[in-house]
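DM between two lab members

TW: hey, do you still have the Lysozyme entry open?
JB: yeah, one sec
JB: this one, 178 aa:
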Amino acid sequence: MKYNRLIGTVLFGAVAITGTLEGQRNQAYQDPGGVWTVCFGETAGVRQDMSYSDQQCAMMLASSLNYHNEPLENLHYQLPPNVHIAALDFSYNLGTNALRRSTLYRKLKQRDIEGACQEFNRWVYLNGKDCRVAQNRCRGIVTRREIETQLCLGQISVRDALMKLGHTPSDAEVMYDL
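TW: and the structure you got?
JB:
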């Protein structure tokens, strides 16, 4: 049996959380690390002159979430939806290789969900800079990790996370509180 497929409420929650955290920019831009990026944080093959429609960006996000979900499908049990969404956002943000090498993933494989949830906040550096330090101007990473942690631990729902980010979700965006 295949676990942790990206369907239903988990898919809706992941699109809402990751899409909101990433933000959408249809024109290519350089992210804080100097990497050319477009849509919801896509970097593969992106060049300075690229631009995409909203529909193309949405399709890219769905495809990319499926790709970044692959390590979670290799777990031999079903993750709770909130844990799945938090771990998928982490994988999307840092990449599948970072997820696979992380203590967070090792703890998920050991079914230590609470321990895994505590690992998100260790990933608060960008290009060697501690994003908890205001002058490094990368506080968004810290906010993202706090939301992933709280979501993972079940302290907030997807709807609560979106509200914290200043996004008012509609019922179509989040089918129900996860």
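TW: got it. The chain has a mean pLDDT of 92. The CA atoms of residues 129 and 136 lie 7 Å apart.
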